[in-house]
Amino acid sequence: MSGVRVRVAAKINLSLRVGARRPDGFHDLSTVFQAISLFDDIQVRASPIGSGRTISVAGERVDGVPRDDRNLAARAAIALAEAVGQPDPDVHIDIDKAIPVAGGMAGGSADAAATLVACRALWDTEIADEELHRVAADLGSDVPFALQGGTAQGTGRGDILVPVLATGEWHWVVALNDGELSTPQVFAECDRLRSCGLSEPAPGDDSALMAALRAGSARDLAPCLVNDLQPAALSLRPSLAAVLAAGTDVGALAGLVSGSGPTCIFLAADREHAIGLAAELAGSGLVRGVRHAFGPVRGAHLIP
Ligand code: ATP
Question: Which CATH number goes with the domain that contains 75?
Answer without folding.
Answer: 3.30.230.10
